[in-house]
Predict the structure.
Amino acid sequence: MPIRIPDSLPATQILESENIFVMTEFRAMHQDIRPLRVLLLNLMPTKIATETQILRKLSNTPLQIEVELLHMATHESRNVSEQHLETFYRTFDQVRNERFDGMIITGAPVELLDFEQVDYWDELKQVMEWSKTNVHSVLHICWGAQAGIYYHYGINKHELDHKVSGVFRHWVVKPSSPWVRGFDDLFMAPHSRYTEVLATDIQNHPLLEIIAASPEAGVYLAKSDDSRHFFVFGHPEYDPDTLKREYVRDVDKGIDPDVPANYFPDDDPTREPLSTWRAHAQLLYTNWLNYYVYQTTPYDLSQGVV
């Protein structure tokens, strides 16, 4: 999937070095096709790392995607320069009159706060309400998934006794779902969180269904029955060393964290971890884009997205 992003975005050089097809703005302008418009709402403090991870996953089908980056205007970002935000990101006020084929809402390190305590919660609610009429399909990730399923369906999160951190085995609960087409029955996926959404709460909601879950890490994939909202309660976009960097960070803070499960060879943090989830992570994004965005979105977005 050629992804159309600004030529000077830091992710561009990284992705090109990985042999990922990044289309120049000039070339995209001269192709006689309509690209899918995808809005990436990046709530992570490490914006450059996160935008690179997500863009990497949007890169492996024949579709052309035009990605717009969005940040919360009501939140002060401390881990990325103001110049980066001004150059590459837009605010909700700048996109509220536009329509998009898809939107991705990332996680955020605020899960121990009540939703209403998050400083940009009111703005995020505006975005999620706006998405009902201006976005065809929304993919929510980790805390973004918890926030989305709470706002749209009233299902709250619950604090865990200890952080779930590691790479866990998952089973496909609904193999007939196109979202997991091509998945193995058993697959691996990373999690890194202090809270969870209960499987029983999702199962008891008439408009939701569970697609994949883990006996250790809980629900991994869920979606609405109208295929407008998709919820990923883990981090399939993580790089091989992301959990390691989080672990080292917490050790340096004196938190004494558990070693991420099923991650380091022989559970030895001095050894380099290997990715065991990359292929399924790619399928997850590719299937969402193909079956729930490209195949069903209207060609003329001005006619509406519902």
Remarks:
- The chain has a mean pLDDT of 89.
- The chain has ten helices and twelve strands.
